[in-house]
Amino acid sequence: MPPAWHQWLRYQRAEPPTLQEQSVEAMRQERIKVLAAEADARWKAKPSLLDMPAGAPKKDLEQPRTEELGREKAEIPRQKQAQGEGFTRAKTDSAQLKVEDPWKKAQRGVPGETWQPEAWSPAASKKR
Question: What's the CA gap between 6 and 28, in Å, rounded?
């Protein structure tokens, strides 16, 4: 049963759905089915890492080496400077070096910072 009929039967709609609403909903459902089939076909057409032979290198899964990352980070400011965006190497280097933890300042001098709970030792109960 279409949602519009459920709404009408549960008094969430004042009027029952019209034939035009029902035909529009049926066309929308057909369009969704076609688009879903196209999306499934595109997904199946992509090569899967599971289908690769065991000896083949999996470049997508390899982590870049730290040397390559450092080189890429150094190249980015040079490229932006060459493009005329006003970036200087000194500013980017100092910004990368001055990364501080903002919580370090907030944690200094907090009352009870060194407090540790004691072991629980209950008192003996009185006889009644």
Answer: 18
CA–CA distance, 48 with 63 (Å, rounded to integer):
19
Confidence of residue 49 (pLDDT cuts 50, 70, 90): confident
The total of other beta-carbon atoms located within 10 Å of residue 13's CB is 14
Q: For residue 16, what are the contacts with CB-CB under 8 A and spacing of at least 6?
A: 4, 5, 8
- Give percent of the chain above pLDDT 90: 33
* pLDDT tens figures, 62-98: 555 555 555 555 565 555 555 555 545 555 555 556 6
CB 17 within 8 A of CB 8: yes
- The predicted model scores a pTM of 0.38
| Whether the Cβ atoms of residue 89 and residue 81 lie closer than 8 Å to each other | yes
Q: What pLDDT is attached to residue 112?
A: 76
Asked if residue 42 lies in contact with residue 33, where contact means CB atoms within 8 angstroms, the answer is: no
Q: Where are the domains of the chain?
A: 3-46
| Separation of alpha carbons 77 and 122, rounded Å | 65
